[in-house]
Request: fold
Amino acid sequence: MPAVTASVEHNTMTIIKGQGMVRSVYAFDHVYSAFSTQNEVFKGTLEPVFADVLKGYESTVFAYGQTGTGKIYTMEGSLSAPSQYGIIPRSTEAIFSTLKNSEFEFSRVACSFLEIYNEELHDILAIDTSPKTRLEIVNGKNGPFCRGLTEKEVKSSDDVLKVIKMAERSRTIGKTKMNKHSSRSRCIFTVSGYTKRKSPDGTVDYHGKPHLVDLAGSECAKYAGLGRSSHNESTRERERMNINRSLLTLGRVISAVKSRGLGKKTRVPYRDSKLTRMLQEALGGRSKTIIITTLSPSETAISESISTLNYAQTAGSIVNKPVASSYLGGKSPKSGNLGDPGDPGNTVEHWFEMECRLKYMEAQVEEAQTALSRQHVHYNVMREKAEKFENELITKEEECKGAHR
Reply:
């Protein structure tokens, strides 16, 4: 009898533990069973947010779960049959299908593939033989990004499939007792969509991107069959420790962000690992985030399954504040050309800021006018008093002159 059962109808996961048959039920937005198709998973997770991605929003989808539970299959699927495509190929198909709409004046799609292995950054798409550019995570205008990462332009969903196949040959995998082809790294696949749309005031430029993150699965050394008896097993153990340490940091980040949402002053340890640094905007930031957790029904994996479900429920309570990255390019009164989308003066955020400043200045002018009016009243009162004192002084002087006569 499976220790974990799924109810697609009620969107619940049930854990049955111990001889006493203790039942624990977890509720989620969507639940999929072994009978669910790849298309059903895509339609219930990432498909609803794609309209927003092409309007300049970032979205992040990451798969989390024990090694061997199907994270790579969920994200990539089998590229040999369209019905078995995972989230990544289906996402790119949706992007190119939407871009055929006539409302777009211009569109460009590019992708990047970042691997984090033993806390080192690797550019999977860098295939040249020249010395590789040093990758580093830096803070940008819209949050952290990896400087030096290759961005490869793609013209169709078939181009994306070629990129994924090329990346599969470069990814770091290893053999454990639980999985013959276990991913030993965390990978972030990013699709950047640059589009232009007409608007009554000119052209609006959008830059949206979905990040599709495959987290290396959490592992227990006892069941993964890891040890230190050989060089290979020593390498696997080092990988396992780095994987679990990174996931532990991710858990602390999720808990800290949740605490902040409850009004507590808590430090969020984004910088404690490269993975959480890269996912900063996805966890309590500007990105729309979806978490897909994968589970094993086996009784031997019950402790990992419980940990995964607790993880997912905690992460589900995080509230992000998505912000679109868009630029308003109106016509210049001098040249008649479209504004430069890179000019900060053309961003929608800039116009909102200018509107706020205008309202502030209007309030300041009103306050100044009120203050001036008060000063004017005060001046008139003081002038009347001065005239009164002056008249009294003249009267006294005339009285003194009359007395001397």
Observations:
- The chain is about 40% helix and 25% strand.
- The domain at 34-329 is CATH 3.40.850.10 (Kinesin).
- The first helix runs from residue 38 to 44.
